[in-house]
What we know:
Blueprint: E1 2-10, E2 13-19, E3 24-28, H1 35-45, E4 65-72, H2 79-86, E5 98-105, E6 110-114, E7 117-119, H3 121-131, E8 132-136, H4 149-157, H5 160-207, H6 213-225, H7 227-241, H8 249-261, H9 264-267, H10 272-301, H11 305-323, H12 330-390, E9 400-407, E10 419-426, E11 434-435, H13 442-456, E12 464-468, H14 476-490, E13 494-498, H15 502-505, E14 510-518, E15 523-529, H16 532-544, H17 550-564
Parallel strand pairs: 3-13, 3-14, 8-12, 12-13
Antiparallel strand pairs: 1-2, 1-4, 4-5, 5-6, 6-7, 9-10, 10-11, 14-15
Helix pairs in contact: 2-3, 4-12, 5-12, 6-11, 7-10, 8-10, 12-13, 13-14, 16-17
Amino acid sequence: MLVSLSIRDVVLVERLDLSFSGGLCVLTGETGAGKSILLDALGLALGARGEKNLVRRDDDKGPQQASVVAEFSVGEKHPAIEILRNHDLDIPEPGESLILRRVLTADGRSRAFVNDQSISIGILRALGEALVEIEGQFASQGLLDVAMHRPALDAFGGFGALKRGTAETYEALRSAEAALVQARENFARAREEEEFLRHAVEELAGLDPQSGEEAELAARRGFLMNGEKLTAALSEAIASLAEGDTDGVETRIGVAQREVSRFVDQAGGRLDEVINTLNRAAAEAAEAGAQLANLVIELDADPAELERAEERLFTLRAVARKHGVGVDGLPALRAEFEESLASLDDSTSRIEALEAVEKIARAAYVEAAEILSGKRAAAAVKLDKAVAVELPPLKLEKARFRTVVERAPDSGWGPAGFDRVTFEVATNPGQEPGSLARIASGGELARFTLALKVALSETNSVSTLVFDEVDSGIGGATAAAVGERLEQLADRVQVLVVTHSPQVAARGAAHWRVAKGGNKTRTRTTVNKLADDARREEIARMLAGAKITDEARAAADSLIAGDRK
């Protein structure tokens, strides 16, 4: 429910603070007094487009910005709370208000806030649509928006659980479709690359790269490149170790062994460890000599080995560069290419399996959507009957209303099913029904939306309804019927109505008068809440015009008293 509205520097409104109650709230005033300004200001707070000409200008400079603050009382389960939660915004504590604020500067820029948290205009608009619905011949939201017709019918039918189930099957279908599309795209890409993959696998299989092979080859190449120097060094080392050389290590170790062995018996075991060590040294020296000899043989065995090592090393590096990997990454790349080729053989069966899953998901969605569509068709009949009951008292007895439920093409399928719902009317006999938004008469349009709102009132999710000029072009019994239905709506939700009809105004639980005043240089719009006597005078003015007569006052008393009964 709208609790208060504070307006600063919006067109003719300099400063205005209004407090609202529940029930039917009526706003009256002469034409041009500024009633539409109040709706424009409320629209700003609800996320409507901000035009720079809404900023009040009384002199050369004028105010630099306009601002509107709308305070709402909402319950814990109100849809606006879910919007806050989905955008990670603070949730009001129980008993706290939800406060929307909009600031509009003179150059057309604007900022939006909810409970002093900065938000985008899009979020503000979403909150506004959840809190307030504006109906009238110039309204751009509410039931004039065809996108609202299906949700309105679903709410009327109470299809919440069915819609959730349908949404689940739709998401499953979308997931299955996405997986199938991805598999087909992968298969198409693999087919395009098949020739390349087969060549690459054949090349890598012939090369058979091994992990760590580059480092091994580089070391081998370095060894072989220094073969001549190494051979000379190795020969010198062998000569130093040679047993036949009097200065050789093996000869010297042998002399030491013989000298020590002469005194083993006299040493009482003290020389045993020395003899063992000398024996090991002799064996190690002999082993070292053998290894050196083998290395010399290795260097002399195959003069072309260096060429082969270099050729393989350079080939590995060239192939690695071609594929954009390191040499050590070639084995893994080979495995990846082989897997891609193997997947080509598996892709057909995988795609067939995914097609089966998609087919099952589609059938489940279609079944759920068909059930929902059938329920909608039945609810449409009930809604048409409910609206038909409301039309004659509103002087629309010759008009027809119908709810059209038709199946959209596949491109129009969604989580809410595949139905397009449109509210259509025909205002005269023989006329083909058309969209609500194309009704010629603004007064008829307002009364149609009122009839619809009465029929849908039990399932309305917004907490505040605003009707602008709902009584346009009517009077007498028809205006009284409009007032009666607005009062019925106000039993369930807060209703704000801008009216020129005394019969409607007399139904109000609270009454405000909008007036325009000022001096030669400045004009202001003011709004005053009317007490009983002032309310009587205002309704009498609406009945009589500029000159209020005693008869008009008596008629006003009769209207007010009759409505209180």
